Each structure stands twice: as structure tokens, then as C-alpha cells.
Amino acid sequence: MSDIENTPEQVRFADFGLAPEILRALTDQGYVHPTPIQAKAIPILLQGRDVMGAAQTGTGKTASFSLPIIQLLLAHASASMSPARHPVRALVLAPTRELAVQVAENVAAYCKHTPLRSTVVFGGMDMKPQTAALRSGVEIVIATPGRLLDHVEQKNISLGQVQMLVMDEADRMLDMGFLPDLQRIINLLPKKRQNLMFSATFSPEIKKLASSFLTDPITIEVARSNATAEKVSQVVYKVNEDHKRDAVAHILRQREMKQVIVFSNTKIGASRLARGLVTEGMKAAAIHGDKTQQERMQALDSFKKGEIDVLVATDVAARGLDISDLPCVINFDLPYNAEDYVHRIGRTGRAGASGDAISIYSDKDERLLADIEKLIKQTVPRGTLEGFVPGGFRSDERHGERRRDRTAADRSAGERPAFERSSARPSGSAGPRREKVDPWFLKPYEPTRSNATPATASAATPAKPKQKIAALLGGLPKG
Ligand code: AMP
């Protein structure tokens, strides 16, 4: 990492009294100075206190909890081959496979010069290799909640000696309906343990969860609670409701944007916008709940490879997918739930890089904008779209695509289908949401292994473009 923001005082990792093995690993990574969250959290965690951290991915939060865990567990480290000498002592829970893998990679890098062992378990994969790793003995386990419980049920793991618990991206875990699983897991842990919770946003539900399992926690914020990333420059453009797609096309074209995610509140809106952008000659694809898993994976892979410039997504579709560090996110619709705005724009401007968060809104969205500004405690600057001439967007209707547009899936999508609605709930609503979320999204991102040509909706692909577009935008039966 090069340009991540460090603490102004230029504290050094060596100042924390970390073991030489850990400092060596940090030197291997090229880290000398802690980031603000690390500077605040590491000394507190080393004292054994519970911590509630308000920090997004990209702030260096993973090392802020991993380094103290490793330091504290070093006292128990054993070079023995016996699994019994390597009980699970630290458990990190993460909402998605991608995040779990990312955390596990960090932990493995930080403990590589120590005898401590770590592994990661997540759903959607064969359990056997995970079982073998667990049974050989590991001190640090990083897991998605559902798969962890599967392993518990199969007696592949015992949680009776866990002394440190981390809930990473706790807000997303709640959004994804993991609350019952989290409660089951907590019940399996020893009562006396150190607890850490990280969350980008602090809704009443998160506070309730925190009060139920943290003991006298110290709250650490690297930015104001619910604040938007400082380096993200935000702007809103007000247009007529009918001209929103024109406006998105105009912005994309004018700025020649690549690697942009455009958020739509509805599946039908995402499909139509992606299709329209393709018609306009842009490399765009939609990703939402009516896509088959294969379609979504292909669209995501193509986006990551740069074969697609614009990914149009619903909130639920974007959740759980590792799409971050983007130069720009565009809100085609303002989200119904203001906290989704924070999540959306958190996809950009990460790890010290700057980013743009552009939102389009119309008269009827004034209320949503007011809610967002209240939450982020800032007024988002109102911009003017230079050179914007509405009406340029060639609509589906004009291209005779209306019939194809109204696929059964789109019709059934109606206004907002049940699982899409879950992301639009007011943050104060309680209760598990899992059944309302499309189960596919509970499976974190799996890289596509097939060599099949990605079904990307790319107007730049000359061969049979219509077929490709149809495949991506709901023309295929579900797998
Ligand atoms: P995280 O928020 O934990 O996902 O970290 C974001 C990125 O910052 C990751 O790529 C880390 O490898 C990197 N990083 C973490 N700590 C530091 C540090 N102290 N100095 C430089 N980069 C860091």
C-alpha cells in the first residue's frame, strides 16, 4: 500500500511494543507508520479492552485488530505439530467470502514469522479442505457465519477456547440477515473473552448488537460516525425524472469514465439503464437479483478485467461483492435508505485515493436527499451538468425493445421485490432479514472458473451483440 493515510504524529509500529516477529512481517509489507485507526486501536486492544470501531474497509482496520490478536496469542504459540496444542483462540467473523479471504491473507502475512496458524472458512466451497485445515489445529479462524456453524455442527471445530472475537463489517452482517447465526455463535463462546466490533455505520440495530456482546467498550472512530469518506468528492445533479438516464449517459460520455458502478434502486431500472448505455455504445452490464449466478459472476469478472466499464447494480447485488477502490460511483437513483448512500460511496476513494460520488436526483427525491444529508451531516454540493441536452438517450421503446424488456422476471420485479426491499428498510426496523435476501447474495464472490466468453453487454463487441445483451440482461433461464 502506498498512499494510505498515516497518523499525523508519525507514530511507528515499533512504538507499540509488538513482538519482533510481527515487526518483521510489517517491514516485509513495507508498513512503517500505523494508520489512524491502527494508532488508536492497537494500544487499547493490547490492554485487553473491548472495542467498537467505526471504520470502513480501506482504513487499515484489518491490521488494527490482527496485530494485537497475534501479539496477545503469541504467549500461547506452540511449535508442536499436535492439533491439540493449536486450539482456536481468535475468531474473526466476516459477512462475505471476499472479505474473509482478504482478512485471512492479511493475518497470514502478519503471523508468517510466528508459529501461530490461521485459516479461513466460507460457504459455497467444498468443506473437506476446510475441515482438514481446522482439524490440524489453528489458533486464528476467519469465517463467514453460516459456514462456521456448518463446521461446528460437523464437530470440525471447537469454539470453547476462543478468547478473542472480532465482528468485521457488523452492519453488513446484519443487513445480510446473519443476526441469528451471530447469536448462535456467540452462545458457543466462553463468556470471558475480548470482543471487537467494526462497522462502517452505527444504526440502532448495530448499537443494540454491540451492547449485547461488548463489555465496557471503547469506541474508536477514524471519521465521524456515518461520515462519508473524506476524500470522496460528492455532487448531486437535479434533473427531470425522465432525463435521469440521459444524465448518466452524459456524465459517462463526457468524462470518458472507466470502472464505474452505477447504483439503481430497482432491478428493472438497472436492466434498462445498462441496456440503454450499451445502445449508446458503452460497455455496460447490469447485476441484480434476477440474474443467474453465472451471469452475475461473468459480469463481475468482466468488470474486474476491464472488459466492462460500467456496472449497473442494485444495492443487494453490490453487497458482498468485492468492488472497491473505484474512481467513481454514480447514483442513478438516490437510495431509499440513507445508510446505503454511505455504503455506495464507500466503494470509491478508499485507502487514501480520491474518488467521485455523483448522484442524479429529481424533484420527487428531495426527501431522500434531505435524509442523506442529515445522516452524513453535510450538504452535498449541487452541480450543473455542463453541456447536458436532455433527450439524447435512445430509449428501449424507440428501439422496439419494449417487449423484450418486459421479461417475466422484470414484470415480477414489480416496484421493489421482497429481497430488494430488504435493503431499503428504515434502519430502525428490527428482526432477521435473511429470508428476504436473495440467497445468492449470501454466497460471497466466487471467481469464475469457466473459460466461457463472458456474456458482457458490450457494444464494442461486433459479433452478435444482441444475443450477448440478451444473455446478460435476463434472456437466459436461471441456472
Ligand atoms: P483494510 O482497511 O484493513 O482493508 O486495509 C486497506 C489497505 O491498507 C490494505 O491494502 C492494507 O494492506 C493497507 N494497509 C494497512 N495498514 C497499512 C499501513 N500501516 N501502512 C500502509 N498500508 C497499510
From TrEMBL:
Residues 394-423 have a biased composition (Basic and acidic residues). Its EC number is 3.6.4.13. Gene3D superfamilies: P-loop containing nucleotide triphosphate hydrolases (3.40.50.300). It comes from the Bacteria. Residues 11-39 form the DEAD-box RNA helicase Q domain. A motif (Q motif) lies at residues 11-39. Residues 42-220 form the Helicase ATP-binding domain. Residues 452-464 have a biased composition (Low complexity). InterPro entries: DEAD/DEAH_box_helicase_dom (IPR011545), DEAD/DEAH_RhlB (IPR044742), DEAD_box_RNA_helicase (IPR050079), Helicase_ATP-bd (IPR014001), Helicase_C-like (IPR001650), P-loop_NTPase (IPR027417), RNA-helicase_DEAD-box_CS (IPR000629), RNA_helicase_DEAD_Q_motif (IPR014014). Belongs to the DEAD box helicase family. It catalyses: ATP + H2O = ADP + phosphate + H(+). Keywords: ATP-binding, Cytoplasm, Helicase, Hydrolase, Nucleotide-binding. GO terms for biological process: response to temperature stimulus; ribosome assembly. Residues 231-396 form the Helicase C-terminal domain. Residues 386-466 are annotated as: Disordered. One of its GO terms (molecular function) is nucleic acid binding. GO terms for cellular component: cytosol. This is DEAD-box ATP-dependent RNA helicase RhpA. Pfam families: DEAD (PF00270), Helicase_C (PF00271).
